Structure to design on (222 residues):
């Protein structure tokens, strides 16, 4: 059974701080995604990671993939309030398999 | 910018009634999906559709559910006899072929079964 496990599930952090969200998955896959969801809104693709060692950065977010460890990370640098949202790690199999999501709240 | 469009945005229906949720995927995309998200919970896969047929479906997608692509643009999800537990946000997504492609999600239809 394909499992995607994120931690933490809830994260409250101060503006300006750094933090990392972890995503472990149970089986090999050809691609891994990170999606963002604002409350009551749709799902927005942030990153597509294909190969071992892949690193992608967009603004204050950086995602990486270690296929040998079956681990992806989403690193937040100098958090700002606008980053408050739920972040999903998503593994591509026959369908997109979502983790439970990490609810991030950035406070002043 | 191309986007996935879903209608209606909110549907309230009585238990036992049939509902049809509609989606217009991005026009050149080949893969189509339905997902649902019960309030505050995980995003759950329902079904994937490719080349005019279901390619995969989850345990949730039982005989009460069906999908159709009645013309070249629409992609619909039908629930024949709704139950209270079908209340959720339903998301349609589409994806193009290719290694780097991601799935684009619509804004969702909030289904409330009363």
């Amino acid at each position: 059974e394909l499992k995607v496990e994120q931690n933490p599930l809830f994260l409250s952090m101060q503006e300006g701080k750094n933090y990392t969200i972890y995503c472990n998955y149970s089986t090999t896959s050809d691609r891994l995604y990170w999606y963002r969801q604002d409350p009551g809104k749709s799902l927005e693709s942030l990153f597509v990671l294909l190969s071992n060692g892949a690193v992608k950065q967009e603004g204050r977010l950086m995602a990486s993939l270690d296929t040998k460890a079956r681990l992806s990370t989403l690193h937040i640098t100098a958090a700002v309030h606008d980053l408050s949202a739920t972040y999903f790690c998503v593994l591509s199999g026959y369908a997109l398999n979502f983790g439970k999501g990490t609810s991030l709240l950035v406070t002043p | 910018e191309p986007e996935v469009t879903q209608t209606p945005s909110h549907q309230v229906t009585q238990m036992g009634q049939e509902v049809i949720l509609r989606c217009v995927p991005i026009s050149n995309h080949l893969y189509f999906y339905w997902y649902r998200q019960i309030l505050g919970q995980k995003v759950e896969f329902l079904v994937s559709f490719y080349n005019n047929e279901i390619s995969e479906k989850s345990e949730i997608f039982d005989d009460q559910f069906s999908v159709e692509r009645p013309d070249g643009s629409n992609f619909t999800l039908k629930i024949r006899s709704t139950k209270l537990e079908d209340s959720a946000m339903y998301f349609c997504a589409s994806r193009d072929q290719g290694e780097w492609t991601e799935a684009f999600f619509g804004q969702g239809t909030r289904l409330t079964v009363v």
